[in-house]
Amino acid sequence: MKKQRLVILGGGESGVGTALLGKANGYDVFVSDKGKIKENYKQVLLHNEIEWEDETHTESKILNADIVMKSPGIPDKVALVKAIRDKGIQVVSEIEFASKFTNATVVGITGSNGKTTTATLTHHILKQELNVGLAGNIGDSFAKQVLENDYENYVLEISSFQLDDIIGFKPKIAVLLNITPDHLDRYNYEFENYIQSKFRIALNQTKEDYLIYDADDEVITNHLKNNPVQSQLLPFSLTKTIENGAYLDKENIKLTINNNQIIMPTGNITLEGKHNIKNAMAASTVAHLLKIRKQTIRESLENFQGVEHRLEQVLKINKVQYINDSKATNVNATYYALESMDAPTVWIVGGVDKGNNYEELFPFINEKVKAIICLGVDNEKLMNTFGNMVDVIIETQFMSEAVKIAYKIAEAGDNVLLSPACASFDLFENYEDRGRQFKNAVRNL
């Protein structure tokens, strides 16, 4: 019998993980990357005798595939992807491919903001009592973990791009944190397309499965009204009383599932900000469903250290607090960051704008921001939007310079906040690179 041919577009973490899992399961595997494959990934492919190419796509070696796994970074409008689909070849994402080779209980977490924090926090709670992996957009790829560890449970951070290419993927527990306009450049600038993309997380769920979601998010609640899902609903809210799910009652989170209630004081949660109370509610609901002890959930919320590049307190210099929020790649994430500032703030913003509307930030600019430093190749939109709102607005293309300017402007008691509201690809490799450069520049002051 002829081996099934698996072609993988993109030789990054998810691509190489899928290649290893595919080979182990008897596929004829070929990896093709239009860019350069990083040296460490090349070594893995060579060591495992997997055929690969980089800096080109050889169509004759791709269009003979039985199945194609495409990296989430490659848009559907690329000619090669169109050609693959036109031939009727199935295109899947890594989570779709890998999920076929595990019987684990899967928790899938998506949303425009808070995915990484919620997924990391959920994993932090579950790992106290369960055998559990953390994958998706974080750490080692899901495919590689299925091959090497085959955990009994997985927490997956899942982007809309990964959900676009699922067919049968079905998490036992799906979490939908929020939906705000993001990545609209990939969805023909139609917010509705992006909403439907996020809701694909519940596409294959049945009444045996669960959907945990933010009941305060009108985009989500309206969509659910008009497009009911099969799964059991467990909402969370800061403003409403929820009978089955989680809500905030004064200073306590009250979480009820099938008449079994946990009460958790919010004062002891290490993560700050209203949005993090929601993230804690979502993570606790997952843990409660998976029968984690109440005491373990409470303790885990109190000792969780947070995520790098997400409102990460770097250093205090001359009584000025430097905060790295490089992971804020859209306006809504920056909204949460500015909302949680309790001192005059020098704000570093900019990068690749994904069709941003900055209006929701205006109240915070007036109230909290004393100076703006625009850090991007093209800062014109930022200058036009905020130029009249603050006394000091400065442009730069270098992180080290941005931090030095901030150091000069900031006074004792102020904050310096890197919260770009944009993607990082104009000046940096990715948001991690941007965050690390910020931290290094602060340490070098």
Give structural notes.
The protein has 445 residues and is an alpha/beta fold. It folds into 3 domains: 5-92, NAD(P)-binding Rossmann-like Domain (Rossmann fold, 3-Layer(aba) Sandwich); 96-303, 3-Layer(aba) Sandwich (UDP-N-acetylmuramoyl-L-alanine:D-glutamate ligase), CATH 3.40.1190; 312-443, Protein-Tyrosine Phosphatase, Chain A. Helix content is 35%, strand content 23%. It is built from 17 helices and 20 strands. A 9-stranded mixed β-sheet has the order 7-8-6-9-10-11-12-13-14, with helices on one face. Strands 15-16-20-17-18-19 form a 6-stranded mixed β-sheet, with helices on both faces. The protein has a 5-stranded parallel β-sheet with strand order 3-2-1-4-5. α9 (191-199) links the parallel β9 (173-176) and β10 (210-214). The longest helix is centred in the middle third of the chain and has 16 residues, at 274-289. It is globular.
The CATH homologous superfamily of the largest domain is named: Mur-like, catalytic domain
Structure class: alpha/beta
CATH fold-level name of the largest domain: UDP-N-acetylmuramoyl-L-alanine:D-glutamate ligase
> Largest beta sheet: what is the strand line-up?
7-8-6-9-10-11-12-13-14
List unreliable stretches of 5+ residues: none
The 3D shape can be described as: globular
CATH class of the largest domain: Alpha Beta
- Total count of strands: 20
- Counting DSSP H or I runs of 4 or more residues, the number of helices is 17
Radius of gyration: 22 Å
Helix content: 25-40%
How many structural domains does the protein architecture include?
A: 3
Q: Please report the distance between the alpha carbons of the first and last residues.
A: 65 Å
- Tell me the β content: 15-25%
CATH architecture descriptor name of the largest domain = 3-Layer(aba) Sandwich
Biggest pleated sheet: 9 strands, mixed
**Integer average pLDDT:** 93
Catalytic activity: UDP-N-acetyl-alpha-D-muramoyl-L-alanine + D-glutamate + ATP = UDP-N-acetyl-alpha-D-muramoyl-L-alanyl-D-glutamate + ADP + phosphate + H(+)
Function: Cell wall formation. Catalyzes the addition of glutamate to the nucleotide precursor UDP-N-acetylmuramoyl-L-alanine (UMA).
InterPro entries: Mur-like_cat_sf, Mur_ligase_C, Mur_ligase_C_dom_sf, Mur_ligase_cen, MurD
Family: Belongs to the MurCDEF family.
